[in-house]
């Protein structure tokens, strides 16, 4: 009888210390809501649309017919204001110049927002 009572008490203690907290933590998490499917189509911009983004605080560039919003990178650009020389315009030639390390070719895709209209 002592063994049975000890087993029951151990089971209750186990439930209180392990099972109940796990159940409670799952119920505290917000329910996952299915998100709306996003348009997977690529945005296309005309040269005129890109041209208006030609300031330090709003800087888009074109590289090989792709459009990049580099506004957040302007202040970090190691070449200073050189990035603004072609703001709102085609920067392909300057981008592939000898001043850029190979690292820049890997990081530029993070800024891509679409393609240039053909």
Question: What series of H and E elements makes up the topology?
Answer: HEHEEEHHE
Mean pLDDT: 80
| Structural class by secondary-structure content | alpha+beta
Strand residues, percent: 15-25%
Q: Order of strands in the sheet with the most strands?
A: 1-5-4-3-2
Which key features would you list for this structure?
alpha+beta; 4 helices; about 35% helix; about 120 residues; elongated; 5-stranded mixed β-sheet
Task: Report on this structure.
- The protein is of the alpha+beta class.
- It has four helices and five strands.
- The chain has a five-stranded mixed β-sheet with strand order 1-5-4-3-2.
- A hairpin with a 2-residue loop joins strand 3 (58-63) and strand 4.
- The radius of gyration is 28 Å and the shape is elongated.
- Residues 29-39 have low confidence and may be disordered.
Question: What topology does this entry show?
Answer:
Blueprint: H1 2-28, E1 44-45, H2 47-51, E2 54-55, E3 58-63, E4 66-69, H3 92-95, H4 103-107, E5 112-116
Parallel strand pairs: 1-5
Antiparallel strand pairs: 2-3, 3-4, 4-5
């Amino acid at each position: 009888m002592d063994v049975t009572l000890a087993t029951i008490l151990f089971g209750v203690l186990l439930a209180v210390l392990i099972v109940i907290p796990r159940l409670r933590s799952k119920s505290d998490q917000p329910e996952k809501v299915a998100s709306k499917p996003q348009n997977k189509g690529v945005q296309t911009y005309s040269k005129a649309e890109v041209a208006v983004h030609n300031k330090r605080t709003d800087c888009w560039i074109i590289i090989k017919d792709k459009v990049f919003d580099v506004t957040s990178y302007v202040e970090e650009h190691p070449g200073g204001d050189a990035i603004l020389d072609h703001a709102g315009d085609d920067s392909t030639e300057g981008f592939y110049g000898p001043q850029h390390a190979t690292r820049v070719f890997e990081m530029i895709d993070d800024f891509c927002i679409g393609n240039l209209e053909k």
